[in-house]
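Incident log, structure service

09:12 report received: a user says their structure output differs between two submissions of the same chain.
09:20 pulled the input from the user's history:
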Amino acid sequence: MESKNSFWQSRKGHAFDIVVVTAVYFYVILVVAPFEENLALQISAYVLGGFFILYVFFISQYLHKDTAAERGFGNWKTLFIRTDNLKKSAKEVLLIITPLLILGIFVTALILGTLWTPEGGGFSAWLVDQGLLEEENLLIDFFGQFLYYILWGFIQQVLFLSFIHVRLRKVFPTMSRMRISLLTGAIFGSYHLFNFPLVTFTFVSGTIWVWSFYETPNLLTVSISHGLGGTLSSIFVFQKSIGWHMTVGWPGLGWGP
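09:34 re-ran on a clean worker, output below:
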């Protein structure tokens, strides 16, 4: 009979984490977000959101006794960058997977007819408004978005690779690498509902990243890949001119504010 202390190391404990964290996420984007003027809902979102971040980044790994290595981290001496598999991960993620993703983005843009009309992300427009730049500049937009997406990509990969992927492997210890990759990718895509073009893009890219992370867990390389993929897709694919965007939740269906 399992003791109470072993619940967090059990399959039920790992599944519990995925269900609760996912429920909190969808509560925030589907229930709270459409009603920004409701103070009670906003307070609940800040409280739950704060706990969400603390739990995913810190509390969960302690309860489940995860190692830093399996979560793609190094130790404090290396600034938490995992260096023992960095070279292998960089070859696989940055030299193989990322070029394939970029090729997919450009082919998609070519099919959509947006390849030759890139749209900036507005960073240079903000600089123009501040009087720091004379006119909008796509190159500045690219680097501004790239830095943003590396950070945002890191946060997302902690959630999906270090948290959900690790939990799924412990819920389904005999599941194959392919099935775990597809399942994690599907959950990653579902977090982008109801923006179906973005759901498709994140499912495909997420599945590929998980496939690599499964055997070579390294958050740095995947975050860089995510940053570059997110930047190029936002410039060349998800354009206002064709009605595509990167907003999730009800606005993906054209509902809400």
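09:41 both user submissions now match this output. Likely a transient worker issue. Closing.
09:42 reviewer note: Helices lie at 11-32, 39-64, 86-112, 123-129, 138-171, 177-190, 196-215, 219-236. The CA atoms of residues 147 and 227 lie 7 Å apart.
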